[in-house]
Amino acid sequence: MKLLEPININGMKVPNRIMVPAMVTRLSGEDGFVTREISDRYVRYAQGEVGLIVVEAMAIHGSNAGPLLRISDDRFIPGLKEMTRKIHDASDSKVVPQIIHFLKIARSGWRQTVDMLTIEDIERIIEQFGEAAARAREAGFDGVELHNAHAYTLASFVSRVNARTDEYGGTALENRLRLIGRVMASVRRHVGNDFPVGIRYLSDEFIRGGYTVEDAKLIGLRMAQLGADYLSLSVGGKFEDAVHTPGHVLHGYSGYSGERCMPGASYPDALHVPYAAEIKAFINAKGFDVPVIAAGKLSDPDTVEAVLQAGKVDMVAIARGLLADPDWVKKVRLGQVDRIVKCDYCNVCKQLDGAHMPVNCFLWPKGAVQAPPDHGPVVAPSWPDGQAGLAMKLDGGTVALKWKKATGAVYYDVYRADDGGEARIVDGVKLPVFTDASVLGGVRYRYHVRACDANGNAGAPSESVQFDPAIPGRGTAAEAVARG
Amino acid sequence: MKLLEPININGMKVPNRIMVPAMVTRLSGEDGFVTREISDRYVRYAQGEVGLIVVEAMAIHGSNAGPLLRISDDRFIPGLKEMTRKIHDASDSKVVPQIIHFLKIARSGWRQTVDMLTIEDIERIIEQFGEAAARAREAGFDGVELHNAHAYTLASFVSRVNARTDEYGGTALENRLRLIGRVMASVRRHVGNDFPVGIRYLSDEFIRGGYTVEDAKLIGLRMAQLGADYLSLSVGGKFEDAVHTPGHVLHGYSGYSGERCMPGASYPDALHVPYAAEIKAFINAKGFDVPVIAAGKLSDPDTVEAVLQAGKVDMVAIARGLLADPDWVKKVRLGQVDRIVKCDYCNVCKQLDGAHMPVNCFLWPKGAVQAPPDHGPVVAPSWPDGQAGLAMKLDGGTVALKWKKATGAVYYDVYRADDGGEARIVDGVKLPVFTDASVLGGVRYRYHVRACDANGNAGAPSESVQFDPAIPGRGTAAEAVARG
Question: Which site in A79, A141, B218, B349 is 20 to 30 Å from B247, CA atoms measured?
Fold first, then answer.
């Protein structure tokens, strides 16, 4: 499989093509130091054989921002060093920190914007990025990733809505790119050319007046010209369209652009691959071969493999899918795809982040702070007397399913096949009930459920039920309910 | 060429694959009657041999909405009938009206939403759509198009943010589809099965909580099930994210979703074709062959032809490109692509609409209410003494060009070739100056300009100037300015 092939990123031997991109955990201490919980989170990805682990954004500057890692002072190095040692001890996964600068935000809704920064502020940021990258190298990381995405400082300079009027802003693309260019130079001065430096940035801002993939191609080219060692693409997640909840600081993922950044169940799979593929093709045509990484609803192994096989991108970043199951890569390697805890994009993780709570996965056992350790294929959950008793009730255009609790079940995957097609998971639920509001008269639906344990071991499929709804006002198709 | 092939839509013999979709003109009378100006606008498209002309949205209900056509009463039929006669006299173009229902909006920012409608209101809307369709047939139209898109009533029922809690709303897709289903049935009762009925709807709402192409596939399938004769896809243009200008009624194209609906110069060409193609493939797989029509930055003839040749969609809708040059189809047929007045997506037309002013094209001669009549290839504009005197000035990451006025010029197309590639139009300007803010160090640019008359007849290319900017902080490339 292409997804299991190694890739060399400026000397960093990444064992496969899967990256866990930076995800907020809210598991660090308020003081910004590494805690046991946060270290465990990243060691878990290494145990699962993820190729490249990006540790969540850590601040390069002094800040009071709650539970957020910091790399703004040498005193943070020992904790980070111990974490990287544990990660490296666990497997041959590589690990880089995402380093971030962000501006001030207030509970009132006020936020500092890039046009409020003085030239001295900018010079300080440039130096802080360099120093933070040097600390990352000292702390045993295999490289470093610059956070040039979403609502944060670097991305706000690159943005089309950068409101500065001097050489660091305005309408000229070169001015918008000036800060990231100087930051790259500063980082190289501090870490040298033999240390991998990746960049995360947006292929589309998804805000009014924002930039699209047209600018993103040029931004990527500039990153390649400046010697970036990988380009990791995201989208949206901006403050400009964030929805302010009175009394809370603005959450960059609460608006439409935030919805695109972490697209939920109503969005198609792999939806942002075309942008990353267009950027890769553009940069390759200009003679650069810097690896390009796509993200966005890419947790289905077949889909990931197809994207890589087609050469659309070089690596795939999986956030929510790897949060749900850090053993995703290992299970794919062992041919145990059926054992993967499959993300259903319910976005409870996103809600926890938005509520400033520790981020976990809805599909984990109740109260779990981490994904449970993998005990390998064991006895999967079973239905009482071998019968799930799957029953269906129809109510005004919705299908309500219920079934019996299975012994040893932590959650249930609900499968639906449309018009005799392939059965796909439409939801993952903890309680033995499910309602489907997205059924259309004239299409034939067949449902079944499978009970799964904490490690994703799926028990036998339930009986199936079929739903053959009529087209309202037509009555040509019979509303036939059959047991399969 | 595929784009010049006819297509039969339920007996309506459309002579080619190009549609002009409904575009507000603000040329009708305040009373909703057809005026000379509005009739001329649509006759002009027929003279240009556009396959299917969709006349701008006309209200099916009594309303006080300024200069907006109405089809809410039999007294509007004679005016409409005269217009369709003139259109049919001009060429074999086919013409349908887009019929619309919209809710109340106030200058205060308040707007009526679908959850405020009573069941009686809904029954009235259903009947009004049927009656309006019958009037369309009586007025000599070749078919009718239901407006089920953007911020208006039908689309607001289909929307995922429909806030009703009864059988016409809520989370169930079937409930959201109930009104459009009943409207279709009412229309068929009034016009019979042998009158083409098309539907315009959204492939993606592009708002927070809105639907995506996943729902759009099912909505399209339902339209096919109900016997829609074509599906014309748009995106966005919603009130939910509209930006309220105090003292003005809400404009549905003022937010991010409105930006996607009429994407400007910063967006890629043909950007929404993938959604329409996905919908077509889905519906075809279900056994329906209803024609699917894509829109969105599709005015380049090569791009349009490629989209049709690939079978992605059956027809292409061109709004701004046909506003700029209603003779687009005729010029393509005659092999006179060089004579097309090429839309540069400056969106002055969109701004005029937003300001509630008569909509014209920036590239037309000053003061023109309509695209000038086509006088055929005549003497194109010429440079004084055969020299354009193209000069370039560099200023902080931007390129400023200026050149001499050409004799007979109405506007100038500015061409740019990147790294020796194909020269493409980056802007169309009325004055002989242009500033380019999207240049990147490390890329070689070559510019030239061509002067065009009112009919798009382009004069000889100017001299070219080359710009070879360095990568800031690198200085490896020389900032060489050469005259070509």
Answer: B349
HEC-encoded secondary structure of A401-461: EECCCCECCCEEEEEEEECCCCCEEEEEECCCEEEECCCCCCCCEEEEEEEECCCCCECCC
Query: Could you tell me if B20 and B52 are in contact, meaning their C-beta atoms sit under 8 angstroms apart?
Result: yes
Strands B411-418 and B424-429: antiparallel
Q: Judge contact between B418 and A217, C-beta under 8 A.
A: no
Q: Which of B331, B436, B452, B316 is nearest to B381 (CA)?
A: B452
Which amino acid makes up residue B50?
V
B212 in contact with chain A, both atoms CB, cutoff 8 A: yes
Check if the beta carbon of residue B19 is closer than 8 Å to that of residue B52: yes
Which of B212, B206, B230, B210 is CA-nearest to residue B280? B230
Q: Does A287 touch chain B (CB under 8 A)?
A: no
Interface of B with A in 133-162 (CB under 8 A): 160
Q: Give the β-pairing of B292-295 and B315-317.
A: parallel
Q: At what angle do helices B273-285 and B213-225 cross, to 10 degrees?
A: 50
* Tens digits of residue pLDDT in B202-237: 999 999 999 999 999 999 999 999 999 999 999 999
What distance in Å separates the CA atoms of residue A407 and residue B29, rounded to the nearest whole number?
72
Give the ipTM: 0.94
Nearest neighbour of A167 by CB, restricted to B226, B286, B396 = B396
Q: Indicate the pTM of the whole model.
A: 0.95
Residue A208 touches partner B, C-beta closer than 8 Å = yes
Cβ of B181 and A472 within 8 Å?
yes
